[in-house]
Specification:
The structure holds two protein chains of two kinds. Chain A is mainly alpha-helical. Helices cover 63% and strands 11% of the residues of chain A. In chain A, a hairpin with a 2-residue loop joins strand 2 and strand 3. Chain A is elongated, with a radius of gyration of 19 Å. By secondary structure, chain B is an alpha+beta fold. The longest helix of chain B is centred in the first third of the chain and has 17 residues. The chains are: A mainly alpha, B alpha+beta. At the A-B interface, helix 1, helix 3 and helix 4 of A face helix 2, strand 8 and strand 9 of B.
Chain lengths: 100, 301
Amino acid sequence: MQSENLIAVNEFCTGHHIDVTFISTLHQFGFIELTTIEQANFLIIDDLPRIEKIIRLHNELDINLEGIDAIIYLLEKINSMEYELRVLRNRLKLYEEPQR
Amino acid sequence: MNVMEFVDYYKILGVAKNASDEDIKKAYRKLARKHHPDLNPNNKEAHKLFQQINEANEVLSDPEKRKKYDQYGKDWQHAEHFEKSKESRRQSTNFGGQQFSGGFEDDEFSDFFASMFGEGSGKRSRRKTGFRGGDYDAMLELRLEDVYTTQQQVVTVNGKKIRITIPAGVENGQKIKLKGHGGPGHNGGPDGDLYITFNIVNSSPFRRDGNDLFKTEQIDLYTAVLGGEITIDTLGGKVKLKISPATQNMTKMRLKGKGFPVYKQEDQFGDLYITLQVKLPNAVSDKEKELFTQLAALQSK
């Protein structure tokens, strides 16, 4: 079953060849939100990039969930710093460009 | 005919030819942690390196593949039959005339790998059996004037035409997400997203800082001294500006709400800051000289 914004956990796990318990662990860890409809668990589609990133880090780099938590925090920090850098770079143009 | 390049997998992993399986595993893990695309967002070089590292590991960690590579690798030149399939595998993605790369969708093996081990022999299954489609990244160049108003553009992504709405007030370097316009999903998964980064080129008379605009306007000496009214161009049209008598050179004036539209905040605008630059006459006539002399005399009294 797949609604516009939700995707069944079972379907997601089949697609990724992962066990449903892994998703439960991620939920217990506070990484993801689960929506329960008629006793079936669903993931929010907008969360999939984040969940898939966690799966990749776990499977491809053998990073445990504590490590992933730290990585995600640091990546978010980098993201906000990159945003700040972009704003500052744009502001710097004000002084670097010839007066108009 | 193109000559296929030899790929030195040992060099990529930084291990000796006689490296043990354990050494290869260790080197791969270390490099993968360093160059993994999830740890290096927006870094195409890291993505490329990660693909090479993966490929090297794919070959060197598999005894059969490693043996074949060691045996034939260096002598492997070019495979004519492969050139055709190579072309078909290469999907260039055009976006408004500009190329862009897909996220994890394009992590193909090299031509060298495919020719030696055959297509589809890679175990990149961890990625290939992904669920949600890969995200695409694109760059779109626009003029400052273009993003003053919300506009729609039709762009071509992977041969498909997409009508996109670019909200007014987009900033230089800003990234927007177009849901579902990335790579196709696998096994019933949703399609990926398309991320567009805007490169705003400014050749207008305005300088921009966020939602505020800055402009220098010249006024003549007489208007500066006596006051008056000037008409200035803003991005939203012409505006009349009252000049007070005895306005000093480089006076700054703020025109509230005449700046740039605030992103996704309808009817909200930043301010326009005008710097008044008093232009002195380049030459004066005899009559003007006489009158300036009289003025100078008045000042010295």
